[in-house]
Amino acid sequence: MSDRRILRMASTGARVLAGALVSAVFVTAVVTAVAIPWPTHTQAPVQVTAQPAPASTVVVCGGPLLALGRNASNAAALSVAATQSLAVGVPDGDPAPTESTLAVPDARGAGPTVLTAAPQDGVRSEVAGAGSASVQASDLAGLAASSCQSPRMESWLVGGATTTGASDLVLLANPGAVAATVDLTVYGALGAQVPPGGRGVVIPPASERVLPLAGLILGEQAPVVHVEASGAPVRAALQTSLTRTLVPGGVDQVSAVSSADKLQIIPGVAVIAQAAQTSTDNPTTVLRVLSPLADATATVTVVGSTGATELTQKIPLKAGLPAELELAGLPAGVHTVRVAADQRIVSAVWSTTGFGQGADFAWYPAAPEIAASTLFAVPAGPSSVLSIANPGTAPVAVKLTPVGGAVRSVTIPAGRAVDVPVSPLATYTLDPQGGAKVRATISYSRVGGSGTTGDALAAIPVWPSDAAAHGIVVYPG
């Protein structure tokens, strides 16, 4: 063999060996790269938080008491039976709100008052208002009280009736600059119905429409009305009154229930001993409850002011059918009603001072949750009391401060309510501490009035103050 061939073979072997070594190194590198985590990079989306310019705070008051059928030539005409006395308050140092009046094409006389508070130093302002009206006439008698509330796109009216002797009115107020269109769904013995008179009801800007409840559904013992607005929010309320064989049996302005929920708390329910003692056939305290969407089971618990449980009962609920439960056997005093269900419900309690001349009644709607400092006003009325309920399982503390006055600390035991006297025509701040959540109602009661006074019973749930506008997160495209 020649030296050239030997050299060629050695050169070829060296190339094969080098290639094998390179391949081995490459494979090792790939395997190692797979085994070792690669560096990662997450690109957060670009976002900008924009704070909307604060809007004015606008609340609409209940307005005067209205009477139906006082005009002999027009039985369907509405007229003012009693004007509303207002209590209005703002935080210390803030200017007074501006006041305006809504037009009421359906009634003769003054309409409800609108309170508008402009922002101060780039921060949304608070304003509180509430009103009361008292009347003693042959067709209408009693005390009515209501708070001034922000208009909403949805609300529930739990109360009233369209049976013989009832004369109830649905009040729909639009304080905005554009028209609102409202659909009313009435829940009764036949379930949910949208009557022709409740579909597409147009409320012009800066005005209020008044609709007789009997014109929507007739012969209902326990109706519930669902109010849905489009175009602009509305403030919905119910004026309810009753006449028994030509004797007026009371009047009330019923605040809306803000939303359906699985837990409803109704503080401040007054049970009048006189009514329970003189009535054997008629219930004097009744709970009305509706599960609008699904069958449910509700547990009703009534707790007295001492913390004693006075009643516990389960009631079945059929979807869309209002149910009523007589709260019989309760001792006289102020009570808290708790309604817990496995589906969303709305509820309210009716109570009366009696069934004879001079009697009055009140509806106590479920109170909304208060989780932050809230400003509220107390209108004129007898024996005004603030009932603060703690539905939680641990004691909570709240601070109750009259505007311009000293702070009062109140501790509320778990599952109970505390009743605190409040001054008429005063404004207070209710501030739950440490993330606590409470419910509250202002209630009035007077029994045994003489002359032109008569009995008086009324209640106003305390609504949380409007929260400041939250920032809006914008993701640029």
TrEMBL record:
Chain residue ranges for the region called Disordered: 94-116
* Stored InterPro entries: DUF5719
Name of the molecule in the record: DUF5719 family protein
Q: Give the source species.
A: Microbacterium candidum
Taxonomic path: Bacteria, Bacillati, Actinomycetota, Actinomycetes, Micrococcales
